[in-house]
Design brief:
It is a single-pass membrane protein. Helix content is about 90%, strand content about 0%. It is built from three helices and no strands. Helix 1 crosses helix 2. The longest helix is centred in the middle third of the chain and has 125 residues, at about 30-150. It starts with a helix and ends with a helix.
């Protein structure tokens, strides 16, 4: 490889040995050869560094790409976990709603039963109160009738007749 470079360096000498300034041609060919020699020399000194930089850059990009792919896989797995949790939460919410509806039905039934029991207690208390009031009114009426009878003195009854009258009123 170094021999090729050396021969490349000697080529302009061989090409320009026969010509001079008075040849009257253009100097494009010698300039092209000089440029190629310059590029070859630069390649000789810089090629390894450029290759190393290129390989390093390529490895750096590959590493970044790998880390991005790992992060993508992690985020996809986290997304799947989150979606599973969302579905689980939806199922739990449905179960809670069903449970709440059942509890509401049970509570309404319980309240209805308690209200019915309270109504029956109130009705019984009302019936008892009515019976007490009827007895009180009967006593009052008997008392009023007897008071009138004794106040006026117009009716004279015997003890037997009074007992019969009182028994009739009480019954």
């Amino acid at each position: 490889m170094k021999i090729n470079y050396f021969l490349l360096l000697l080529t302009p000498i061989a090409l320009l040995a026969s010509g001079g300034e008075g040849s009257g041609g253009t100097d494009i060919f010698p300039r092209t050869v000089n440029f190629l020699i310059f590029v070859s020399i630069m390649y000789y000194y810089v090629a390894n560094d450029l290759k190393a930089w290129y390989v390093g850059r390529k490895n750096e990009i590959a590493t970044k790409l790998d880390s991005i792919q790992v992060k993508l896989k992690e985020s996809n797995s986290k997304k799947e976990i989150a979606l599973a949790k969302v579905e689980e939460a939806k199922v739990n919410a449905k179960n809670l709603i069903e449970t709440a509806k059942k509890e509401a039905v049970l509570l309404t039934e319980k309240i209805a039963q308690e209200a019915d029991a309270e109504l029956s207690n109130l009705e019984k208390a009302f019936q008892d109160r009515m019976a007490i009031e009827q007895r009180r009114m009967q006593r009052e009426i008997i008392s009023n009738v007897l008071d009138e009878m004794f106040k006026e003195g117009s009716i004279t009854l015997g003890d037997d007749e009074m007992v019969k009258i009182v028994n009739k009123k009480v019954a």
